[in-house]
Write a structure and sequence with these properties.
Number of domains: 1
Mean pLDDT: 90
Helix content: 25-40%
CATH superfamily: Vaccinia Virus protein VP39
Strand content: 25-35%
Order of helices and strands: HEEHEHEHEHEEHEHEHEEEEH
Structural class: alpha/beta
Number of helices: 9
Radius of gyration: 18 Å
CATH architecture: 3-Layer(aba) Sandwich
Distance between the termini: 25 Å
Length: about 260
């Protein structure tokens, strides 16, 4: 690697993080992944031969985890920010996934750009880890990349639901995570676009704490009726990772 590239990586705080025995993701100071990302990737794991997309993919962690653990056919990562898209491109090349994983640098509302790569009504599954804070609420982030990642500035959840419905096939699944206080509005936005909530799971740090996250799956054209899954606990009674979290998270954390 050229010295100027090394200097640039240092300035941006870039580093390679493990996602599995032979899988790595390039992250930076502004584009990283966290527990929410890992949980959504696990909750939304595609099936064999499926066509999938990750809206607002950031550094591409969810598609990388999918490619490492599922025999999917193809996944597109849609990302607005150029620096995040470039991180994903490098991770695709590093992991030799050019035939399975394609990055699209575009606004998810830009249908004309997206449909050059993705046929409307073709996807089996779409995941999205959306900004958690509605525009105008919460403290603003000083860097533009953090602002876009945390606040609904570039798009609202209603925008996400509308575009997901446009690209999903009939019966296709949309999966997201959000803070529990937004559950009612998320469900209303999904149902408005013909995406019927089908599976819901709350996540708690431990038993004496309220849920801090929910995972939700909705089906395009699905019939009413939703399954509420058992709560996922991050910690066990001793303060370590719970057995389920070890199964989900520990397989690459302890490499």
């Amino acid at each position: 690697m050229h010295m100027e590239n090394l200097h640039c990586q240092k300035e941006l705080g870039e580093s390679w993080e493990p996602l599995g025995p032979s899988m790595r993701v390039l992250v930076s100071r502004y584009h990283r992944f966290n527990t929410d990302t890992i949980l959504l990737a696990h909750f939304s794991m595609p099936g064999k031969g499926q066509l999938c997309a990750d809206f607002g993919t950031g550094c591409g962690t969810i598609p990388l985890l999918w490619c490492g653990r599922s025999p999917l056919k193809k996944v597109w990562g849609v990302e607005l920010q150029e620096d995040a898209a470039e991180l994903t491109r490098q991770s695709i090349q590093y992991n030799k996934l050019e035939s399975k994983f394609e990055i699209i640098q575009a606004d998810i509302k830009d249908r004309e750009t997206l449909r050059k790569c993705i046929e409307p009504g073709s996807l089996h599954k779409i995941a999205c880890n959306p900004p958690y804070t509605p525009e105008g609420k919460g403290g603003s982030s000083p860097e533009n990349s953090r602002l876009l990642a945390r606040h609904q500035v570039a798009c609202s959840f209603s925008d996400i639901a509308r575009e997901a419905a446009f690209f999903l096939r009939w019966g296709g699944k949309f999966c997201c995570c959000q803070r529990p206080e937004h559950l009612a509005s998320v469900m209303a936005s999904l149902q408005k676009e013909g995406l019927e909530p089908k599976r819901l799971r709350f996540v708690q740090q431990r038993q004496d704490k309220a849920p801090f996250l929910f995972l939700l799956e909705a089906a395009r054209g699905g019939n009413p009726g939703m399954q509420v899954l058992p709560t996922l606990f991050v910690e066990d009674s001793a303060g370590g990772l719970s057995p389920e979290m070890l199964e989900i998270y520990g397989s690459y954390k302890n490499i």
